Amino acid sequence: MGSSVSTKGRSKQAAPPRNRVHTETTASDGCIDVPPGRKSPRPDKRTSEPAVVVEQVANSGEKNAVENDTQGCSVQPPKSSSSNESVSGKRLTPRKKGSPPRRQGPSKEDLTMSLELCTDNLPPTDSLEALEKASKRIRKICTFLQSRGNVPSNLLKRNLHYIADVLEIVATDDASTDSRKSKVHQETKNDPSKDRRFIDEDDELSEVEPDAVPMEVRDWLASTFTRSASVTKSGEKEKKTFRSIVQAVRAANLVDRLYRRMSTSAVTYPPTVMKLFKSLDDWSFDVFALNEATNGQALRYVTYEIMMRYDLLAKFKIGVGTLFNFLEALEVGYSKYQNPYHNLVHGADVTQTMHSILFQTGLVQWLTDVEIFAVVFSAAIHDFEHTGETNNFHVMSRTETALVYNDRAVQENHHISAAFRLMTDDNLNIVYNMSKDDYKDFRTLVIDMVLATDMSYHFAQVKQMKSLLSCPDNIDKAKALSLVLHTADISHPAKNWTLHEHWTELLMEEFFRQGDKEQELGLPFSPLCDRKTTMVASSQIGFIDFIVQPSFEIMSDMLDKVVAPISPRGSLANQSSATISEKVEAEGSPQNGDQSEEPFEFKVDRVWDGHLTGNKVKWKEQSTKDQAEKEAREKAAQKAKEDAEKRDQSPLDDKAEEKKDAENPPKITANGTVSPGNAVDLKVKPSTSPENDDQVSTKEEAVGTASPEHAEKRTTEEDKPGKIESITVKSVTKRKESGV
């Protein structure tokens, strides 16, 4: 036993382990590095002596270190046995011939794990790719832990050391000093309440977007850098506060976002579309010009561009192909009934109007990503498969849609149901990667917003918002966004005159088509649906005064209350501090007894007020002209009616005269003349005195003046050719005087 190693008489302090089994990995990260001079940890068959001598560990800590170093390796050291093996410094007996092998070869899963967790080919810790590689490596470790339950300690240590080195480089702060740290540490030790650093770091961590880094990395960062005060490394380099890590993560997230935006931007816009999109944020955006430039595809272009500007494709992992499939199906549904007004152009217009309100007023800062997505989605689908008729028409005509939805918000319920039914197809499902909680919130908000576009809820909605504005409590987001969508749906009277006039023509044509259908079905005309009686200008004035303008006023008040807390003092943000100070100096300080200036009240830019006022003035001018033309038409129609009645009455009078002449044939008078049957039949007798002549003449004149109509009829009969000339009383008198 001369080759045995004894520990008797040897001091523990002077006996460090010389031949400890090392677990340094090679390129495969799963094999054991054998110390120099040793080929294998197997026993030597020739001498039947063990090839590896394990000296007794000086303390339990070193023993545990040996066990941890060897745990999880593909090649395990021989297990100790009470019968023939010992770790007390004696030699280990060799394995007997025919006994089972003491170690097994690495499995396929072990080899896969070793290759995927290999640290040899990782990029340098100070490179740009290191942070991304560290994130992916932690994900892989978590995957193996979940599937296998353990990861070899050597692989785990190497990867964690690499990740720690990467984060140390990111977190290096050259501005930190030992004196400041010692001072902060001393103050914290004396008064723990003063230690606000870790609270601030937690706040910064909460600002990191959930998708910026994996959850495992985020948890590890929090536990490493926000809950331990002693995170410094031995040496002169100091670590930065967690703020720098957040900034680094944000920078990496921004680069990743830009990369994904470039990689997902598969749409190439024509030059005319690019030019139009420069004014996409404007209030009076010309959606008709865009529809012409995109060959009738305004809805898909507007929706895609707005979703890209809010980065919704990257945040909700929406594929470009899936999105365009869905938008194409939307356009097909909007064009199903060939409506003049409720078509894909109207859907694109409302979507752009919602974007303009969110962007121009700052309302977007009040919303989460899910709520922004719900707003854009609701605007795009709010009139999907609209039939071109009102809800009342469906109820009165008892359509299938009215029966399905029980006469309640018939069209609006169908828009929502049909749009969500599209996404049951995986090729159209743009919410496939949304979490269950986000999808629940998303769908609830979409339903509330689209149902609010039913005009029968208008006055109740306005009244409810007025009551909410009078309360000091916060405004419910669903109600606020529902009002904004409803207002955007009826916003064309608040656009410039060219757009508003065009939209009005299309809307009235759709109303008149409904009136034609109602006339065919024998239903009464709905308001503004009769082509013959509807005054367009007057109807638009009433629509603006009682519907549109009150909606915009209450929406503006709501935006003032919502945006004011998150806005940098409203319009003061547009003024420099020098301008404000100069104004105060010019006006001078208030003297004694003068009231101080009232506090500033935030107001959103009401760009729509000017258009509403101007359009209403033009409609009033048009209404005056229409009224004058209507009166002229009524007079002309009345005159034409009277002339027609006269023309119809004249042949009747002629027939009546002919009938009377037939009943009263002409008669022969006493003096031998012929008189018509209805003429006065006088028996003229010879007169012997002039008095009798005067009496006869007076009587005849009296008879002639007593019936002027009869005299006119006689005159008329005289003028007609082929009629017998009537003998009047005067002609008889003249003939008597002449002695005939």
From TrEMBL:
Keywords: cGMP, Hydrolase, Metal-binding. Residues 265-626 form the PDEase domain. Gene3D superfamilies: 3'5'-cyclic nucleotide phosphodiesterase, catalytic domain (1.10.1300.10). Belongs to the cyclic nucleotide phosphodiesterase family. PDE1 subfamily. This is Phosphodiesterase. The lineage of its organism: Eukaryota, Metazoa, Chordata, Cephalochordata, Leptocardii. AMP binds at H342, N343, L344, V345, H346, D383, D489, Q540. InterPro entries: HD/PDEase_dom (IPR003607), PDE1_N (IPR013706), PDEase (IPR023088), PDEase_catalytic_dom (IPR002073), PDEase_catalytic_dom_sf (IPR036971), PDEase_CS (IPR023174). Residues 74-87 have a biased composition (Low complexity). Residues 1-111, 174-205, 570-600, 615-740 are annotated as: Disordered. PROSITE patterns: PDEASE_I_1, PDEASE_I_2. It catalyses: 3',5'-cyclic AMP + H2O = AMP + H(+); 3',5'-cyclic GMP + H2O = GMP + H(+); a nucleoside 3',5'-cyclic phosphate + H2O = a nucleoside 5'-phosphate + H(+).
